[in-house]
Amino acid sequence: MTSAKVTEAPEEGYERGLGSRQVQMIAIGGAIGVGLFMGAGANIAKAGPGIVLMYALAGVVIFFIMRALGELLLYRPVSGSFAEYAREFLGPFFGFVTGWTYWLMWVVTGMAELTAAAIYIHFWFPGIPQWVSALVFLVVLFGVNLISVKIFGEVEFWFSMIKVTAIIGMIVIGLGVLTLGFSDAGDTAAVSNLWSHDGFFPHGIGSSLMTLQGVMFAYLAVELVGVTAGESENPEKTLPKAINTLPWRIIVFYVGALLVILSVVKWTEFSAGESPFVHAFGRIGIPLAAGIVNFVVLTAALSSCNSGMYSTGRMLRGLAANKEAPQAFARLNARKTPAVGIGVSVALMGIGVILNYVVPEKAFAYVTSVATAAGIWTWMMILVSHIRYRRAVDAGRLRASSFPAPGGALFSWVALVFLIGVTGMIAADADARVCLYVAAGWAVALAIGWAVLKKGDPAIADRDESRFEKVG
User: Fold this and answer.
1) Which tens digit of pLDDT belongs to each residue from 67-123?
2) Which region, left, alpha or beta, applies to residue 37 given φ > 0 means left and ψ of -120 to 50 means alpha?
3) With contact defined as beta carbons under 8 Å apart, do 74 and 239 qualify?
């Protein structure tokens, strides 16, 4: 028994307006965000140079997750993929929970990115309140997302191009400082900075492992390439290419960049609330370098927020199509964008503006911990769906994907155990534990929502979408 070919996946009314170069850059941009540019400062302060190993370890797990997702995407590319796969392989309830949780992740991540962007503006304009900058950025990006997917793709392409070019430039300049000894940091820059100041793990391996929760936040958005599947011109070609280049992106943009930065400037100089890249280039003393780097990290924050707005509208539309959200979210405007869903999501992102007014010094930490918890749930659903899919393929109930994950379901199990371990670390961290309280409240809200849905439509809990084959 075989299922429909992936190329016959429903168009869902979207415009397939994302070309290969845009999908590639969205994938690259998803691996470079505020979690690296901003969050790395706090992680370095907690773990020292050992943070590099944590980013590398998490990167390996992220690659396992993305290959699992890639296999599912080439089995059936569809916008809102995570919720659709959870719905198909685990049941309607899990599709409902995953769709709404991924939506929450991006709403909260949008708050984090707006907070970071507002902090970066202080570099040039310290007198502007954080909440004012956050509000301006929110309104501008909302307009970009309402126009069309092509405009979104083009804006995201150039945001990502700036980030990629800048990080490569940073690495080159840092290597120049290390090898040629120029600039104000030249006299103290050395690879030995990685172990000379109380060792590679100055606070112990345990402290380094506890940073994995913050490190995982840095990788949120790599899965965004899956959401673009329904609007990609040629998913069978563009998606595998985007996923297979992920290891190189992690090696260069995370491991490589941090190794260079921590060699140029000793780890003890970095602290939370400051971009390590801005600090390092301020120490190097190149004229305007710190300002340029600050501009780059600002675009990184705006890029991620822009992606978040794109994603939220698509997830809400997918939920509405399955009668798991108000039907108003299912409508597209004349430009084939889910304007209502984006609008509601942006309105809720406005809570981030309020947080920047009430608790500007804690806003970033609060929202990143909640976003990480939501992201971990999404990744777990990808992995479990992949395990169920491979079981169905092995039993002959579904056709094999044209992009099988290496190791089959084995690496999905490894990644799943890793994510469970990270969740345990979050529970053990008093500062991050607040996200678990939020998660508990969110679970209660979803349970109530599901009960209301079942009461209104009893068939919703056991329906079988006609375009899918029953996995069993």
Assistant:
1) 999 999 889 877 666 888 998 999 989 989 998 998 898 888 888 788 888 888 988
2) alpha
3) yes
Token pair listed for 168: 């490569």
Exposure class string for 305-315: b at 16+ Cβ within 10 A, else e: bbbbbbbbbbb
First CA to last CA across the chain, in angstroms? Answer: 13
